[in-house]
Protein backbone atom coordinates (compact mmCIF):
# COMPACT_ATOMS: atom_id res chain seq x y z
CA UNK A 1 0.00 0.00 0.00
CA UNK A 2 2.79 2.45 0.91
CA UNK A 3 4.52 1.74 -2.40
CA UNK A 4 1.52 2.92 -4.42
CA UNK A 5 1.93 6.41 -2.95
CA UNK A 6 5.66 6.87 -3.58
CA UNK A 7 5.98 9.98 -5.78
CA UNK A 8 8.08 9.63 -8.90
CA UNK A 9 9.24 12.24 -11.44
CA UNK A 10 6.58 14.90 -11.83
CA UNK A 11 4.84 13.78 -8.66
CA UNK A 12 3.18 10.80 -10.34
CA UNK A 13 2.85 7.54 -8.45
CA UNK A 14 1.69 3.98 -9.11
CA UNK A 15 -1.63 5.00 -7.59
CA UNK A 16 -2.01 7.66 -10.29
CA UNK A 17 -1.11 5.10 -12.97
CA UNK A 18 -3.61 2.63 -11.51
CA UNK A 19 -6.35 5.26 -11.57
CA UNK A 20 -5.60 5.87 -15.25
CA UNK A 21 -6.07 2.22 -16.13
CA UNK A 22 -2.63 0.66 -15.68
CA UNK A 23 -2.66 -2.93 -14.42
CA UNK A 24 -1.17 -2.47 -10.96
CA UNK A 25 -1.98 -5.13 -8.38
CA UNK A 26 -1.22 -5.17 -4.65
CA UNK A 27 0.20 -8.52 -3.55
CA UNK A 28 1.11 -9.61 -0.06
CA UNK A 29 4.20 -11.57 -1.07
CA UNK A 30 6.23 -12.21 -4.22
CA UNK A 31 4.77 -15.73 -4.24
CA UNK A 32 1.37 -14.14 -4.85
CA UNK A 33 2.85 -12.38 -7.88
CA UNK A 34 4.20 -15.71 -9.13
CA UNK A 35 0.73 -17.24 -8.76
CA UNK A 36 -0.65 -14.28 -10.73
CA UNK A 37 1.82 -15.04 -13.52
CA UNK A 38 0.88 -18.72 -13.52
CA UNK A 39 -2.81 -17.81 -13.80
CA UNK A 40 -2.17 -15.36 -16.69
CA UNK A 41 0.28 -17.11 -19.04
CA UNK A 42 -0.42 -14.63 -21.84
CA UNK A 43 0.85 -11.64 -19.84
CA UNK A 44 4.23 -10.69 -18.39
CA UNK A 45 4.05 -10.11 -14.65
CA UNK A 46 6.68 -7.80 -13.14
CA UNK A 47 7.14 -7.93 -9.38
CA UNK A 48 8.57 -4.72 -7.93
CA UNK A 49 11.20 -5.89 -5.45
CA UNK A 50 11.84 -3.31 -2.74
CA UNK A 51 13.08 -3.39 0.82
CA UNK A 52 16.28 -4.41 2.53
CA UNK A 53 17.90 -7.69 3.50
CA UNK A 54 14.65 -8.71 5.22
CA UNK A 55 12.48 -8.96 2.10
CA UNK A 56 15.10 -9.82 -0.54
CA UNK A 57 15.51 -13.51 0.51
CA UNK A 58 11.79 -14.08 -0.05
CA UNK A 59 12.15 -12.63 -3.54
CA UNK A 60 15.13 -14.93 -4.15
CA UNK A 61 13.04 -17.92 -3.02
CA UNK A 62 10.32 -16.86 -5.47
CA UNK A 63 12.83 -16.67 -8.30
CA UNK A 64 13.97 -20.19 -7.41
CA UNK A 65 10.37 -21.40 -7.52
CA UNK A 66 9.80 -19.67 -10.87
CA UNK A 67 12.70 -21.65 -12.31
CA UNK A 68 11.56 -24.91 -10.75
CA UNK A 69 7.98 -24.47 -12.01
CA UNK A 70 9.12 -23.20 -15.45
CA UNK A 71 6.97 -20.06 -15.17
CA UNK A 72 8.45 -17.97 -17.98
CA UNK A 73 6.21 -14.88 -17.85
CA UNK A 74 7.47 -13.72 -14.45
CA UNK A 75 10.31 -11.30 -13.72
CA UNK A 76 11.52 -8.99 -10.96
CA UNK A 77 12.44 -5.33 -11.02
CA UNK A 78 14.99 -5.35 -8.21
CA UNK A 79 15.25 -2.09 -6.29
CA UNK A 80 16.44 -3.76 -3.10
CA UNK A 81 18.86 -1.89 -0.85
CA UNK A 82 21.58 -3.00 1.57
CA UNK A 83 21.88 -1.46 5.02
CA UNK A 84 25.63 -1.70 5.86
CA UNK A 85 26.87 0.25 2.79
CA UNK A 86 24.41 3.05 3.59
CA UNK A 87 25.71 3.28 7.16
CA UNK A 88 29.27 3.49 5.84
CA UNK A 89 28.26 6.22 3.39
CA UNK A 90 26.69 8.23 6.20
CA UNK A 91 29.82 7.98 8.33
CA UNK A 92 32.06 8.92 5.39
CA UNK A 93 30.05 12.14 4.98
CA UNK A 94 31.66 15.01 6.87
CA UNK A 95 28.20 16.55 7.33
CA UNK A 96 26.88 13.51 9.19
CA UNK A 97 26.06 14.20 12.84
CA UNK A 98 25.03 10.65 13.79
CA UNK A 99 26.82 9.46 16.96
CA UNK A 100 25.34 5.96 17.24
CA UNK A 101 23.09 3.60 15.30
CA UNK A 102 19.95 1.80 16.44
CA UNK A 103 20.36 -1.11 14.05
CA UNK A 104 17.26 -2.61 12.38
CA UNK A 105 15.87 -5.69 14.08
CA UNK A 106 14.24 -7.34 11.06
CA UNK A 107 17.26 -6.82 8.80
CA UNK A 108 19.50 -8.19 11.53
CA UNK A 109 17.57 -11.47 11.68
CA UNK A 110 19.17 -12.10 8.28
CA UNK A 111 22.55 -10.37 8.69
CA UNK A 112 23.44 -11.06 12.31
CA UNK A 113 26.12 -8.83 13.84
CA UNK A 114 29.24 -9.34 11.73
CA UNK A 115 28.31 -7.06 8.78
CA UNK A 116 28.02 -4.13 11.21
CA UNK A 117 31.41 -4.70 12.84
CA UNK A 118 33.06 -1.87 10.92
CA UNK A 119 30.98 0.68 12.85
CA UNK A 120 33.00 0.12 16.01
CA UNK A 121 36.31 -1.13 14.58
CA UNK A 122 36.76 1.52 11.86
CA UNK A 123 34.57 4.46 12.88
CA UNK A 124 34.40 4.03 16.68
CA UNK A 125 30.62 4.41 16.62
CA UNK A 126 28.25 2.29 18.74
CA UNK A 127 25.73 0.05 17.00
CA UNK A 128 22.93 -1.69 18.89
CA UNK A 129 20.44 -4.10 17.33
CA UNK A 130 17.10 -3.24 18.89
CA UNK A 131 13.55 -4.51 18.89
CA UNK A 132 10.36 -2.56 18.34
CA UNK A 133 8.61 -2.45 21.70
CA UNK A 134 9.16 0.66 23.87
CA UNK A 135 11.26 -1.33 26.35
CA UNK A 136 13.41 -2.67 23.50
CA UNK A 137 14.10 0.82 22.21
CA UNK A 138 14.87 2.16 25.68
CA UNK A 139 17.31 -0.68 26.33
CA UNK A 140 19.11 0.00 23.05
CA UNK A 141 19.31 3.72 23.81
CA UNK A 142 20.70 3.01 27.28
CA UNK A 143 23.38 0.74 25.84
CA UNK A 144 24.33 3.41 23.30
CA UNK A 145 24.55 6.06 26.01
CA UNK A 146 26.74 3.80 28.17
CA UNK A 147 29.09 3.11 25.27
CA UNK A 148 29.39 6.81 24.47
CA UNK A 149 29.93 7.63 28.15
CA UNK A 150 32.63 4.99 28.54
CA UNK A 151 34.17 5.66 25.09
CA UNK A 152 33.81 1.93 24.42
CA UNK A 153 31.95 1.58 21.10
CA UNK A 154 30.78 -1.91 20.19
CA UNK A 155 28.19 -3.68 18.07
CA UNK A 156 25.83 -5.58 20.36
CA UNK A 157 22.57 -7.50 20.11
CA UNK A 158 19.83 -6.18 22.38
CA UNK A 159 17.13 -8.17 20.56
CA UNK A 160 18.23 -11.78 21.16
CA UNK A 161 14.69 -13.20 21.27
CA UNK A 162 14.45 -12.57 17.50
CA UNK A 163 18.03 -12.02 16.28
CA UNK A 164 20.81 -14.59 16.43
CA UNK A 165 24.33 -13.19 16.41
CA UNK A 166 25.11 -15.23 13.28
CA UNK A 167 21.89 -14.20 11.54
CA UNK A 168 20.31 -16.56 9.01
CA UNK A 169 22.99 -18.27 6.86
CA UNK A 170 20.44 -20.08 4.66
CA UNK A 171 18.71 -16.83 3.73
CA UNK A 172 22.05 -15.17 2.95
CA UNK A 173 23.05 -18.13 0.76
CA UNK A 174 19.82 -17.77 -1.21
CA UNK A 175 20.51 -14.05 -1.65
CA UNK A 176 24.02 -14.75 -2.93
CA UNK A 177 22.69 -17.34 -5.37
CA UNK A 178 20.42 -14.88 -7.20
CA UNK A 179 21.74 -11.39 -6.42
CA UNK A 180 24.97 -9.44 -6.53
CA UNK A 181 25.76 -5.99 -5.07
CA UNK A 182 25.28 -3.03 -7.40
CA UNK A 183 25.43 0.76 -7.16
CA UNK A 184 22.09 2.21 -6.10
CA UNK A 185 20.45 5.62 -5.87
CA UNK A 186 19.04 6.64 -2.48
CA UNK A 187 16.62 9.53 -2.38
CA UNK A 188 18.04 12.09 -0.02
CA UNK A 189 21.53 10.57 -0.02
CA UNK A 190 22.40 10.15 -3.70
CA UNK A 191 24.21 7.26 -5.33
CA UNK A 192 25.93 4.85 -2.92
CA UNK A 193 28.37 2.30 -4.38
CA UNK A 194 27.46 -1.38 -4.02
CA UNK A 195 24.45 -0.59 -1.84
CA UNK A 196 21.78 -2.29 -3.94
CA UNK A 197 21.03 -5.76 -5.25
CA UNK A 198 20.90 -6.66 -8.93
CA UNK A 199 20.13 -10.08 -10.37
CA UNK A 200 23.15 -12.06 -11.46
CA UNK A 201 23.71 -12.30 -15.24
CA UNK A 202 22.77 -15.99 -15.33
CA UNK A 203 19.24 -15.00 -14.30
CA UNK A 204 18.78 -12.29 -16.95
CA UNK A 205 15.52 -13.88 -18.10
CA UNK A 206 14.08 -13.17 -14.65
CA UNK A 207 15.43 -9.61 -14.54
CA UNK A 208 12.92 -6.96 -15.65
CA UNK A 209 15.74 -4.47 -16.29
CA UNK A 210 17.27 -6.75 -18.93
CA UNK A 211 14.15 -8.46 -20.19
CA UNK A 212 12.22 -5.23 -20.80
CA UNK A 213 15.32 -3.13 -21.63
CA UNK A 214 14.56 -0.64 -18.87
CA UNK A 215 16.62 2.42 -17.95
CA UNK A 216 16.03 4.20 -14.66
CA UNK A 217 15.73 7.97 -15.14
CA UNK A 218 17.88 10.48 -13.32
CA UNK A 219 15.93 11.81 -10.36
CA UNK A 220 16.73 15.45 -9.52
CA UNK A 221 16.72 16.60 -5.88
CA UNK A 222 13.27 17.35 -4.54
CA UNK A 223 12.86 21.13 -4.04
CA UNK A 224 12.84 22.10 -0.33
CA UNK A 225 12.91 18.44 0.76
CA UNK A 226 15.53 17.89 3.48
CA UNK A 227 15.18 14.14 3.98
CA UNK A 228 18.92 13.74 3.46
CA UNK A 229 19.68 16.12 6.34
CA UNK A 230 17.22 14.24 8.56
CA UNK A 231 18.95 10.95 7.78
CA UNK A 232 22.34 12.51 8.53
CA UNK A 233 21.15 13.81 11.91
CA UNK A 234 21.72 17.43 10.94
CA UNK A 235 18.11 18.47 11.53
CA UNK A 236 15.01 17.04 13.21
CA UNK A 237 12.00 16.27 10.96
CA UNK A 238 10.02 19.40 11.99
CA UNK A 239 12.93 21.55 10.77
CA UNK A 240 12.15 20.55 7.19
CA UNK A 241 9.97 23.27 5.60
CA UNK A 242 7.68 20.62 4.07
CA UNK A 243 7.09 18.58 7.24
CA UNK A 244 3.43 18.39 8.24
CA UNK A 245 2.46 20.81 5.48
CA UNK A 246 2.99 19.61 1.93
CA UNK A 247 4.65 16.43 3.19
CA UNK A 248 2.47 14.16 5.34
CA UNK A 249 2.06 10.35 5.55
CA UNK A 250 -1.03 10.68 3.31
CA UNK A 251 0.75 12.91 0.77
CA UNK A 252 4.48 12.13 1.06
CA UNK A 253 7.03 14.20 -0.80
CA UNK A 254 10.30 12.64 0.36
CA UNK A 255 11.35 9.08 1.23
CA UNK A 256 11.35 9.63 5.00
CA UNK A 257 7.58 10.12 5.00
CA UNK A 258 6.64 7.28 2.64
CA UNK A 259 6.98 4.29 4.96
CA UNK A 260 5.34 4.17 8.39
CA UNK A 261 8.82 3.33 9.73
CA UNK A 262 10.51 6.27 7.98
CA UNK A 263 12.12 8.78 10.32
CA UNK A 264 9.76 11.65 9.45
CA UNK A 265 6.65 9.45 9.39
CA UNK A 266 7.52 7.93 12.77
CA UNK A 267 8.11 11.38 14.24
CA UNK A 268 4.81 12.57 12.77
CA UNK A 269 2.98 9.59 14.28
CA UNK A 270 4.36 9.97 17.80
CA UNK A 271 4.10 13.77 17.76
CA UNK A 272 0.35 13.37 17.36
What's this entry about, in short?
With 272 residues, this protein is of the alpha/beta class. The chain has helices at residues 14-19, 30-39, 56-69, 83-92, 105-111, 118-121, 134-150, 169-178, 208-211, 227-231, 263-271; strands at 45-49, 74-78, 101-103, 127-129, 155-157, 179-186, 190-199.
Biggest sheet: strand arrangement: 3-4-5
Instruction: State the total count of DSSP E strands.
Output: 7
Count structural domains.
3
CA distance, first residue to last residue = 22 Å
- Secondary structural class: alpha/beta
Query: What is the name of the CATH topology of the largest domain?
Result: Rossmann fold
Radius of gyration equals 20 Å
Order of helices and strands: HHEHEHEHHEHEHEEHHH
What is the average per-residue confidence, as pLDDT, rounded to a whole number?
91
Share of residues in helices: 25-40%
Which stretches are poorly predicted, pLDDT < 50 over at least 5 residues? none
CATH architecture of the largest domain: 3-Layer(aba) Sandwich
Overall form:
globular
Q: Summarize the biggest pleated sheet.
A: 3 strands, parallel
Look at the structure and give the CATH class of the largest domain.
Alpha Beta
Tell me the CATH superfamily of the largest domain: HypD, alpha/beta domain 2
Number of helices: 11
Percent strand equals 5-15%
Amino acid sequence: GDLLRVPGPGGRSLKHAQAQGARVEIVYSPLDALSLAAANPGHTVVFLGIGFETTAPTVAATLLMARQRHIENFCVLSLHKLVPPALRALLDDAACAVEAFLLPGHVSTILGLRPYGFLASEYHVPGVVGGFEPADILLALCLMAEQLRDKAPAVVNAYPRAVADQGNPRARALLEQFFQPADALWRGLGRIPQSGLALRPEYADLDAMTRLDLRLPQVPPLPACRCGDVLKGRIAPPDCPLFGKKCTPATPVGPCMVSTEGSCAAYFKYAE
